[in-house]
Amino acid sequence: MKYNWNWGILLDLEPGGSGVYLQYLLVGLGWTLTVALAAWVIALMLGALIGTLRTAPNRWLSRLCTAYVELFRNIPLLVQMFLWYFVLPELLPRALGDWIKQLPPPWGSYVPAVLCLALYTSVRVAEQVRAGIQSLPRGQMMAGTAMGLTLPQTYRYVVLPMTFRIILPPLTSEFLNCIKNSSVALTIGVMELTARARAMQEFSFQVFEAFTAATLIYLATNILVVFAMRVVERKVRVPGYISAGGAPQAGH
Amino acid sequence: MFTGFDLDVIQRSFVYLFRDGMTFTLTLTAIAMAGGIVFGTLLAMMRLSSFRLLAAAAGAYVNLMRSLPLVLVIFWFYFLVPWIGGWLIGASGTVKVGAFLSSAITFTMFEAAYYCEIMRAGIQSIPRGQVAAGQALGLNYWQTMGLVVLPQAFRNMVPVLLTQTIILFQDTSLVYVISVTDFLGAASKVANRDGRLVEMYLFAALVYFIVSFTASQYVRSLQSRIAVIR
Amino acid sequence: MISLNNVSKWYGGFQVLADCSTEVAKGEVVVVCGPSGSGKSTLIKCVNGLEPFQKGEIVVDGIAVGDPRTDLPKLRARVGMVFQHFELFPHMSVLRNLTLAQVKVLGRSEAEARDKGLKLLERVGLTEHRDKYPGNLSGGQQQRVAIARALCMDPIAMLFDEPTSALDPEMINEVLDVMVQLAKEGMTMMVVTHEMGFARKVAHRVIFMDAGRIVEDAQKEEFFGTPRSERAQLFLSKILHH
């Protein structure tokens, strides 16, 4: 039983009739990016808040945020997805739970996926923000306070602008992680790129063509994102400042 | 409709969950960690070697693995390994490869890329004077690496290597996509059979949390004790 | 024993060594001195092949260092080297530091290597530290162990790269004493150092380098008495008043 190569399959119509397989996959890329971007925007805002609060002088506040971080870091992403999709609607008050379950596809899968990925990623962003803040010389905060700025103002005008520039490189890799992690949403029905590659494989039996196409699309997306982030880095660069912040990383 | 917690289902399926599910998860984690660190160290040495072809090949492999979602890599190996197995033994098609073997290969190869970057940082953090001292005594490349550099690099990177292993432990849950019965898969099976998704998934989350959290606390305490005094 | 002939070395476009030629006879002690960046450390690292060089030739006991067919590890096992930052292996005990290369490179048995190691440890006055780790020793003690480690290999010559530059002043003498003793016993030594007291005591010749060139290469009495080059005179006048 030899494998029959057929790269032309990418230009064949997919069974659903929506277009050729290549188009089908690219729509999947669209879903991947939609999930990832929506989650990323939420994660950035939430993560910046939590990361900042972890460095706050108020012990209870920072302890609370530490608990939040530990909770989301120690449960696998897939398990969190299941909790959002299967468990949450059951635990909410009856009316709310029913409303969520009534959401038509694809939104019934999309919303939990985005929320799950957003909170999961926010924790990683929080860690980067915290490391970035702590890598700034202590004198910066003191200088701000000495001028009469309140603590929130010092963070807003002095600490955070520098922190974000410092952590741009690790944030870029967190964004790339977010894109990769969006693939886990296929388990709750989001038809993103990997899901569609799998579907293509099931319909056409052209396993390697399907997955190679998906691989190349992911790689191309990767390269584009890295390139775009480099442009952003150059634009916001502070002259003469060599950044060395960001948390030392394991993981993906 | 939610009718109230039925903790009984957890009690009844406890043995199945842990004897079948968790042992699979832990065994897979252990094998992928061992294999991944060995292969990863090899990749790191290749990346740092002066043979450009070797360095480029290792670099390409590591960058590829780090650019792709784990789910996609799981599918890749799930379909690829039977074909490679067939090619290796000269059969004309695929060789049936069990779920465990396929997963073990997948996770070893995938995590090796991440372990490689950790070991590479570790090796590069050893001062060049140590290499010079080893060479000055007449040690050749393999002796210098094996006796002087790698032991020190390992010691310094143990906390990061362990943290990566905790992440690996969590990642194994993704074998779900190829319907393999690990801990999460077992919980899912029970959940669907008995209609008790809430209890089972919450329980699964709790177990993963306890294991990961305990392990990461241990790593934190290890960090202070293990640095080689210079 | 060691001869350098028109040795030149470049780091990219920058020339670090320019036409260096000199000889070190058996039993001779040669001190190499000069300002920072003069290339003296680089020169000595070329002698045992730790640094490659592009032009010229270096011959150690009849073996050409620059020849690609030369078995460098074997050569290095016969030439001992002591580094500025000691470079003891921190994850091994003192004794293990001494026996490692004896066993792995010279093929001696563990027992043989231990005996040799302990003998040399006694010679440098550190027997009671044999089971300690380098991190527990002072700089001077570490450097003496490093010298013992090199001597365990029964070298035909010893190279020293600024052996006391990283030491606190109180510890310099304990290391110099070991080196003086070694010289008196007839070891062929090439020493890069600023310690002119050491040079005056046991050196036979002094080489002065500046900007990658050997500017002065004279017998000790001549060098300290009436050095010919202006540069050497300037250097001496600046460092001899410590």
Produce a short descriptive summary.
The complex is a heterotrimer of chains A (252), B (230) and C (242). Chain A has 252 residues and is an all-alpha fold.
Textual characterization of the structure:
The complex is a heterotrimer of chains A (252), B (230) and C (242). With 252 residues, chain A is mainly alpha-helical. Chain A has a single domain, classed as MetI-like fold (Orthogonal Bundle). In chain A, helix 1 packs antiparallel against helix 2, helix 1 packs antiparallel against helix 9 and helix 3 packs across helix 4. Chain A is globular. The two termini of chain A are 37 Å apart. About 2% of the residues of chain A have low confidence. Chain B has a single domain, classed as MetI-like (MetI-like fold, Orthogonal Bundle). In chain B, 80% of the residues lie in helices and 0% in strands. Chain B is built from eight helices and no strands. The radius of gyration of chain B is 21 Å and the shape is flat. By secondary structure, chain C is α/β, with parallel strands linked by helices. A six-stranded mixed beta sheet of chain C has the order 6-7-8-3-9-10, sandwiched between helices. A four-stranded antiparallel beta sheet of chain C has the order 2-1-4-5, with helices on one face. In chain C, strand 9 and strand 10 form a beta hairpin. In chain C, helix 3 runs parallel beside helix 5, helix 4 crosses helix 5 and helix 5 packs parallel to helix 6. Chain C starts with a strand and ends with a helix. The mean pLDDT of chain C is 91. Chains A and B meet through helix 2, helix 3, helix 8, helix 9 and helix 10 of A and helix 2, helix 3, helix 6 and helix 8 of B.
What would you call the shape of chain A? globular
Nearest-integer average pLDDT of chain A: 87
Radius of gyration of chain A: 22 Å
> Would you identify the regions of chain A where 5 or more consecutive residues have pLDDT less than 50?
244-249
Count of helix runs of chain A = 10
* Percent strand of chain A: under 5%
Distance between the first and last residues' Cα of chain A: 37 Å
Average predicted local confidence, pLDDT of chain C: 91
- The total count of strands of chain C amounts to 10
* Overall morphology of chain C: globular
Q: What's the CATH architecture name of chain A? A: Orthogonal Bundle
Strands side by side in the biggest sheet of chain C? 6-7-8-3-9-10
How do the SSEs of chain A run, as a string of H and E?
HHHHHHHHHH
Number of separate domains of chain A: 1
Helix- and strand-based class of chain C? alpha/beta
Helix/strand-derived class of chain A? mainly alpha
Provide a count of the helices of chain C: 9
Low-confidence stretches of chain C: none
Provide the β-strand percentage band of chain C: 25-35%
Q: At the fourth CATH level, what is the homologous superfamily of chain A?
A: MetI-like
CATH topology of chain A: MetI-like fold
